[in-house]
Amino acid sequence: MDLLRKIAPEINSIAVMAMSAYRVMTLSEYRGKYVILLFYPANFSFVCPTELHAFSDRAQEFRSVGCEVIGCSTDSHFAHCAWMMQPRKAGGLGEIDIPLWADKSMKIARDYQMLDESTGLANRGMFIIDRVGLVRHISVNDNGVGRSVEEALRLIQAFQYSDEFGEVCPVNWRPGSRTMKPDMSGKEDYFKNAI
Fold it and tell me: Are residues 178 and 128 part of one domain?
């Protein structure tokens, strides 16, 4: 993945904030916070609303740790609005607590190497962008399988811990778990209790 550990491409596009409220929104306005950027294939589909509902339902939890979650598809902002106006019970998205970027031109998906050129749809990709705008994580699922909100939150917390304390987080790390402090003399890392 060419974008890992590089500055995330700037985004300057219309985002739907809620139902029929939309505005031009940029990625750079989120500097100072972590961002989870969720690409998804299409509105009015099957797996996509389950993911967006799950991330939206926990948006405040992400915000409480200094992270914003933003969705993006190659649909227009009009399609985003129409999907939000249709209730969840009727197959719509309903009201959600995360913004959705409109990418009708497909520029965002192309810039992030997420565009399936054969369909014009975005792949199911997730990017974690840190406070200074660096891409720290990239994952892509085949379109038939949704992502894990729990794992996304764990990754945010692990990157934040590592950034703040200079330690590394082993497999399945959670806040309060043991971390590893790299020994720069070439000896093995040693475990340390997290604060």
Answer: no
